[in-house]
Design a protein that fits this description.
143 residues, alpha+beta, four-stranded antiparallel beta sheet, two-stranded antiparallel sheet
Length: 143
């Protein structure tokens, strides 16, 4: 991907699979992010191409983002010591909220999703896994 208008470059991204997108990123910016979603990587590349051409975020937006502080893992607002429970494959799973993340079976995970993925053995959205999201289904019923 080189030369031409941004619109043409962004349109060309539609034809690339995940490996092609990673190669495009690598050729332009170095090591690609460790994503497994072609759709997300495609959006990231498109944003970077447009930001390079148009200048990216304006000063005020960058200031507001910086003032908002670091991103905190969803679920930490429950407070240290909160225990999240869920029945999973015949056993009750408990995760404890700590200042640095979420503890399950002695291991500390940086996000609730990382803990849920470790528990399930497959990728899960942590808040959804533990029924913290509206419409999440736990045990066949809506939370």
């Amino acid at each position: 991907m080189s030369g031409g208008s941004v619109a043409v470059e962004v349109e060309a991204l539609r034809r690339l699979d995940l490996d092609g997108l990673r190669a495009a990123w690598r050729g332009r910016w170095g090591a690609p992010p460790k994503l497994r979603s072609a759709a997300l990587l495609r959006l990231m590349i498109a944003w970077r191409l447009q930001a390079e051409a148009e200048g990216g975020l304006d000063r005020e937006t960058r200031r507001r983002l910086a003032a908002s502080g670091p991103v905190r893992a969803e679920g930490l607002e429950l407070g240290c010591g909160a225990v999240l429970r869920r029945a999973w494959k015949g056993e009750t799973v408990e995760v404890v909220v700590e200042a640095g993340g979420f503890r399950w079976r002695g291991d500390l995970y940086p996000s609730l999703s990382a803990a849920a993925t470790a528990i399930a053995g497959a990728r899960w959205n942590g808040p959804r896994f533990f029924g913290l999201r509206k419409g999440a289904k736990i045990g066949g019923r809506a939370a």
